[in-house]
Amino acid sequence: MYSLYMRNREFEYFQYMNGVLDEASWQSNQQVIVFNHSTELGKKWWDEIGRDLVDP
To answer: How confident is the model over 7-52, as pLDDT tens digits?
Structure first.
């Protein structure tokens, strides 16, 4: 489930980089990503799975 969440965030980043998603929306999404990665579960997921699944 977390993998799907991160794929969606990755897609939002690509939308932002291509001008489809505005700066304010991307900043809001980015804050959620940082928060989720600061949790114990988020760190564990990134170390064990996420690093190889999505682009850093």
So the answer is: 888 899 999 999 999 999 999 988 888 888 889 988 888 888 878 8
Between the alpha carbon of residue 2 and those of residues 9, 19, 22, 24, 31, the distances in Å are: 11, 26, 24, 24, 16
Give the domain ranges of the chain: 2-53
Give CA–CA dist 29/42, Å, rounded.
16
pTM for the model stands at 0.68
Is residue 54 within 8 A of residue 7, CB to CB? The reply is yes
- Cβ–Cβ under 8 Å, residues 4 and 52: no
Q: How far apart are CA 51 and CA 22, in angstroms?
A: 27
